[in-house]
Every structure is written in C-alpha cells, then in structure tokens.
C-alpha cells in the first residue's frame, strides 16, 4: 500500500526543481540544516533573506537567527521591503533582488507567500541558481510551482523560472497569519475538486491522459485538507496541516506533470478573466487569487452537477456531428464573445482544441462508450455544490459573487469567455461539442441551484 510519505518522496524524486520539503509544527527550527543541504548542491555560498516588514516579524528574524547559529552558513544583510503599501509582483522589484543577490554572491531565501516567493523565484531563475522559501501563510498553491506571475511594462504575464529547491512550511507560522490568507488558500485548494473532474473528461476522450503520480499528489489528500473549515477560520494550527500540505503538493504535481493541468481547470479561467478586468485591484491588499477562484469553483461545480444529470450514453452521435459548427462559425462567436486582446487569444487557444466533424465523432464515441464508468468516477470526484459553498463560507472564503464585488449575471457572462480562454479541454468543451453548453449554463443560475 502506497503511503502519503511514499507519494511525496516519489514527487520530490520526479520534480524538476524542488528536492526538499518540510511541512509541520515547529519545522522552522530545521531551517539551518535544511539550508545547509541546499548549499551542498551549489558549493558554499552566502544566503540572503528577502522579506517585507510583516513577514520579517512573522518568521524572518527567527530564520535569520537560526541560520546565523548554523555552522557553515554565511548570512548577509537581509532585503526587507516596507509592509505598507502592499508589495506588488512588479519586475522592477525582481531586478532589485537580483542586483542584491549578485552583489553578495548569495542565494535567496524568500520569507513570505505569493509575491515575495514569486519575486525571489524569478530573480533566482534569471541568475540560474536555486533558492528556498519559508512560507508564512497558507494563501495559495504557488510555493512549489514553476513560473512567476509578474507585472512588466504595464502587462501582467507569467515569466518562466524554476520552482524552489527547498520549501519550509511551519504550521504555527501559517496559523498566525491574517485569517483571510488561509481563506484564500482554502479557495485555491477547493478548485482541485472540479479541476480533477475536468481532467477525467479530457482523459476519457483521449485529449489529456491523467498522470497517475500527479493525480495522487493533488487529489490524494484534498478532501481531508478541506474537511476542517471552521478550525482553519479559528486559527487552530493542527487544522492547517492538510491545507498547507495540499497547497505544496499541488505545485509539486505541476512539476511532475510538466504543466498546470493537475492544479487547475475551467474554474481558474474565471479568476484569470476577472483579474484581467482588474477586479479588486484597487483594494489594499488586492482581492486575492484564491477568493476569485472560490467563486469560479462554485460555478464550475454546479455546471458539473447539471452535466451529470444527462444520459450521455443515449446521445444521438449522428445528430451531434451534423450540427457541429465550422471553424469559421466558432471564430465568429469568439469575436462576438471576447473583447480587445482576448479576441486573438481566444481564437488561438480554441483553435488548438477544435476538431472537424470526423474528429468530433471520434471524441463523442469515446465519451458515450465511457459514460457509465465516467459518470460514476466524476460523481465520486465532485462534492455537492451546496456543501462546498457552506464549507467555503465557514473557512471565511467567498461563497457568493457579491462577496467579491460581482453579480450572478457577471458570473453567467464569464462562462463562454472561460470556455474560449484556454486550449485546455474541460467539461465546458464537452458540453459545447454535444450541444448542451447553453442549456446547462442557464440551469446553473436557475432558482435553487446555487445563488438564486
């Protein structure tokens, strides 16, 4: 029987960059020997902590003390950003970090969560050297992910760079962080439920086979990690173990699978689209990624539920193929649905997953043949949307569109844009291909289903 420790060990062995991970109560005390192990891979180099005033108080000073007491570790002066206003992942900050690391010949140790991790990650990646992160909040699943979302020349893009070599995630530190940060991480982790269902559909029709180890890393403990929302909201350290582990495993799975499929499906595209519209950007701190993902997760879970009510095994395949629109018709719809730069993105992304009538027939035949088993698997993967909505609310995460400044109509209008946003194949594509997309989308917003 494969244990959780075995799966984690396999993940670390197959991960591109992350080779050491400590998650638990009091593990911050292990930072000295853990960093020594990282230094052995590159020779005896100094280290420099990168923090802001808040994370320095939360963990930075403690980490600095442990490292200074460790034989064989040279610590140069830390780089500490102001605590207010909120630090943004702007490329000019990455350049500042890179210059300080270069001047000191040092490896970076990020002390923080999303932004500080991303800035140190990109700076280290551009210097072609490893780095470590000491996590201070269970706020997102990007700790062990590759790439760094960054604002550069006025545009927000994800810049390529390796994941950290070493991750230290102390549950007591995480539990002391502001409550909304754990609620954000809870929202991000809840997305793995519908994302896993999306992957099942892509696997069933032969578009994107499930990677067994990546699946275990993400899905193996996600239900347990989501099972204690009220204790998370109360700051009980023991309740953070599943959440923190789940967030770190998510990034590890992305490394193993060499892509983001294990950690996200259509629910994330709602968040991405809202971020492009600068939803909540005027707030300080800005509206978190996990909060937006929470609403996308509920919308997609409801869509999955409605889809499962259909008897796909009785589908008239000839009728489906006969009504399949040409690429020209799809492109015209994208132009009517998207706006600005998203038009070209939608066309390019959707073109990748579009198939002609023969290709559609092959996909639908696989779907129909797999349906009895697939329906059972997807049903077992999902959580009832009303239950998930309740759990998100108990964790302090958004559970209604109004919680993030949207209306139900805003979410409804996002569905077709989410379908066209990425080439990744999801249940939205399945529904579109068999002619059920509009019907199911409207059902999501019918009285009693979710928000009405």
Explain what you see.
This protein has helices at 4-14, 31-40, 53-68, 91-104, 114-126, 171-176, 179-190, 192-204, 212-219, 222-225, 229-233, 240-257, 266-276, 289-308, 317-322, 327-337, 341-353, 357-381, 385-395, 408-421, 427-433, 437-444, and strands spanning 20-24, 47-52, 79-81, 107-112, 132-135, 148-152, 155-159, 166-170. It is an alpha/beta fold and 452 residues long. The model has no long low-confidence stretch (mean pLDDT 95). The N and C termini lie far apart (45 Å). Helix 9 packs antiparallel against helix 12.
Order of helices and strands: HEHEHEHEHEEEEHHHHHHHHHHHHHHHHH
Structural class label? alpha/beta
Let me know the average pLDDT: 95
Tell me, what's the shape? elongated
State the low-pLDDT regions, or none.
none
What keyword list fits this structure?
six-stranded parallel β-sheet, alpha/beta, 8 strands, 57% helix, 452 residues, single chain, two-stranded antiparallel sheet, elongated
Write the layout of secondary structure elements.
Elements: H1 4-14, E1 20-24, H2 31-40, E2 47-52, H3 53-68, E3 79-81, H4 91-104, E4 107-112, H5 114-126, E5 132-135, E6 148-152, E7 155-159, E8 166-170, H6 171-176, H7 179-190, H8 192-204, H9 212-219, H10 222-225, H11 229-233, H12 240-257, H13 266-276, H14 289-308, H15 317-322, H16 327-337, H17 341-353, H18 357-381, H19 385-395, H20 408-421, H21 427-433, H22 437-444
Parallel strand pairs: 1-8, 2-3, 2-4, 4-5, 5-8
Antiparallel strand pairs: 6-7
Helix pairs in contact: 1-9, 1-12, 4-5, 7-12, 7-14, 8-14, 8-18, 9-12, 13-14, 13-20, 14-19, 14-22, 16-17, 17-20
């Amino acid at each position: 029987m494969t244990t959780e420790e075995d799966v984690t060990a396999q993940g670390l062995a197959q991960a591109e960059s992350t080779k050491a991970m400590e998650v638990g109560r009091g593990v911050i005390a292990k930072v000295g020997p853990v960093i020594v192990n990282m230094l052995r891979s590159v020779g005896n180099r100094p280290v420099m902590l990168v923090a802001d005033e808040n994370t320095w108080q939360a963990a930075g000073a403690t980490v600095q003390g442990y490292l200074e007491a460790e034989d064989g570790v040279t610590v140069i002066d830390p780089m500490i950003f102001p605590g207010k206003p909120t630090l943004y992942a702007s490329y000019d900050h990455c350049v500042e970090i890179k210059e300080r690391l270069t001047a000191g010949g040092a490896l970076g140790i990020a002390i923080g969560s999303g932004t500080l991790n991303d800035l140190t990650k990109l700076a280290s990646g551009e210097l072609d050297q490893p780095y470590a992160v000491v996590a201070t909040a269970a706020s997102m699943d990007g700790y062990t992910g590759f790439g760094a979302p960054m604002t550069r020349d006025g545009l927000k893009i994800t810049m390529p760079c390796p994941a950290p070599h070493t991750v230290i995630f102390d549950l007591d530190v995480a539990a002391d962080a502001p409550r909304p940060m754990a609620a954000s991480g809870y929202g991000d982790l809840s997305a793995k439920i519908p994302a896993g269902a999306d992957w099942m559909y892509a696997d069933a029709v032969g578009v994107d086979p499930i990677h067994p180890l990546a699946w275990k890393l993400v899905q193996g403990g996600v239900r347990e990690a989501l099972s204690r929302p009220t204790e998370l909201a109360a700051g009980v350290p023991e309740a953070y173990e599943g959440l923190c582990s789940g967030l770190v495993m998510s990034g590890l799975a992305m490394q193993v699978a060499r892509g983001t499929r294990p950690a996200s499906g259509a629910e994330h595209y709602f968040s991405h689209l809202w971020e492009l519209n600068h939803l909540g950007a005027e707030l300080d701190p800005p509206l978190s990624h996990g909060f937006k993902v929470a609403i996308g997760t509920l919308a997609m879970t409801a869509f999955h539920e409605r889809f499962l009510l259909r008897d796909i095994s009785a589908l008239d395949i000839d009728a489906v193929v006969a009504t399949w629109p040409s690429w020209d018709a799809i492109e015209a719809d994208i132009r009517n649905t998207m706006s600005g730069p998203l038009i070209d993105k939608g066309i390019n992304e959707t073109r990748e997953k579009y198939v002609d009538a023969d290709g559609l027939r092959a996909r639908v035949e696989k779907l129909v043949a797999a349906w009895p088993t697939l329906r059972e698997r997807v049903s077992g993967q999902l959580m009832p949307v009303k239950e998930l909505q309740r759990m998100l609310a108990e964790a302090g995460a958004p559970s209604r569109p109004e919680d993030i400044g949207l209306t139900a109509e805003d979410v409804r209008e996002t569905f077709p844009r989410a379908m066209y946003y990425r080439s990744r194949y999801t249940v939205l594509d399945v529904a579109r291909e068999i002619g059920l997309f509009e019907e199911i989308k409207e059902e999501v917003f019918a009285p009693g289903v979710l928000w009405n």
